[in-house]
Amino acid sequence: MTDLSPGHAAAALAGVDQASAAVRQHSAWAVRAFTAYAIGTLIFFPAGGLLSAVVVNVAWAVFLLSLLAYARPRRVVGRGFRRLYLTAAAIWTVLWVGLTVLGHAAFPGNVAYWLVAGVVVAVPMAVAAGRARS
Predict the structure, then answer these.
(1) What's CA 99's distance to the chain center, in Å?
(2) Which of 2, 13, 18, 125 has the fewest Cβ atoms within 10 Å of its own Cβ atom?
(3) What is the per-residue pLDDT for 15?
(4) Ordered alpha helix ranges (H), the chain
(5) What confidence tens digit (pLDDT) does each residue in 78-88 have?
């Protein structure tokens, strides 16, 4: 094992800190993407339960394609990003499908249900945005 002088050790630690800061800076897009997904859910989930499905589905598709176009060229992600994304997306999907089926079966046209359910469905992406920030 090679012993490092205090000067070399300090330089190595400074390099690690600098690399970590660069990864955080260049992976900040993930926070914005998760936040946009949560906000989009707050808008499109209630709209999907209360308005014309065709119009909402087309608008949702445009939103998702825009988000994909934003995220696609960004290759830098922080440690644990993939796991965070896959977990949030899985929970989000289960909530979206489950609360959509329940809403159309038991609460069609009930504005309060769709608004509250929209908040519930948005939570996984909002939590992911918070975790991606740290």
Answers:
(1) 19
(2) 2
(3) 64
(4) 6-26, 29-50, 53-71, 81-106, 111-133
(5) 888 999 999 99
